[in-house]
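REVIEWER CHECKLIST
Item 1: Sequence provided? yes
Item 2: Single chain? yes
Item 3: Sequence as submitted:
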Amino acid sequence: MSKRKTMDTQWTAGECVSQAQKILRERYCYQRVPSSPVGIESQRKNLLELLRRTAIHGESNSVLIVGPRGSGKTMLLKSVLKELFEVREVQSNVLLVHLNGLLQTDDKIALKEITRQLQLENVVGDKVFGSFAENLTFLLEALKKGNRSSSRPVIFTLDEFDLFVHHKNQTLLYNLLDISQSAQTPVAVVGLTCRLDVLELLEKRVKSRFSHRQIHLLNPMDFQQYIEATQEHLALPQDFPDECFAQEWNSSIMVTLCEDSSVKDVLRKHFNTSKDFRSLHMLLLMALSRVTPTNPTIKPGDIQEASRLCTMDAKANILHGLSILELCLIIAMKHLSELYDGEPFNFQMVHNEFKKFIQRKSHSIHNFETPVVLKAFEHLQQLELINPMDGPSAKIQKEYQLVKLMLDHNQIMEALQKYPQCPTDVKQWATSAFG
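Item 4: Structure as written out by the authors:
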């Protein structure tokens, strides 16, 4: 294995590959923020100015960042906060509280999280408060250094903002927005949501305290910008320990990989499906896992294989692990669905269809006892390849409970083609009309 020299150490090809994978995996898994988000410069400028007025001038504000998933809401906020906290005055004075509607499912949990992030657990101690508002006011008062002019600004970010709307009486939102309207403590409330109608969900008293500022993101990125972003996300940094390896890697990405027509086809497919960088990161992460010391760069074939894995049908994959009996039951259900035009069926009908196949056509599958077939049928239900039509409370014998097949013709036929050592007569049964 060749040695590569740097200023004060020597790196083998294996060490270079390992270090490159470590850097890029951290970038993809921790969603590293690009230095300059693409296509949302004006929105970034507006948000930065708004938060700067809170952080530096003590002016309270509230704003909603609205856009579909993957449009860059979190990326925009992280980018703005990163620049804002590079100012020394902000670093030493401003406090940041992150809340998420998926995690803080009620106001009590949210208040505990606010207390924890403001590091005021010792101050609160065993105090008992009469209301949520009283508790929150006490927390903000505890942050003051002496007088009102020296209150420390607090930036509250509320991810999945629309989920906080469902809290009882919208108490958290009311109190945060009420404080942002008063002069007692400089507070900025930044909500992130996918719902365009979120303001219609607010109670009248909450809506009246909101500033009605909204920043909309619609992700205007074109395909060429997407290609450039892919190159940036794959490139190794300038401070990579082995400069020679980094130059070769980056040159390979820019010249060989991203200019390849098959890679462009894959990227265009992902671009048309979703402009979300998280799905791009998943694609690149899978391609990166194929890099080895003997294959030290990402090849077009690696991107194609990664794309195949990303777009693979999860239910069709489950079929590959089924027993031959379970696969036969799936084929029996397929024929019943075709015969009865998608109407539900029960175990007894499936079992009868399977027995017909055994008696008429099969030379490779022996006849199973009914309890064994029923157990296989129940396993398919546990895998959610079939779903019961009646609720779990319905008092119907298992053999007669109506179910529906959750697979289509193409998924079944694709799975049969890839099924290891599938008997020929089973394949022929699957392709025949109505069994």
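Item 5: Key structural point noted by reviewer: Strands lie at 3-5, 10-12, 61-66, 95-100, 154-159, 187-193, 214-216, 386-388, 403-405.
Item 6: Recommendation: ____
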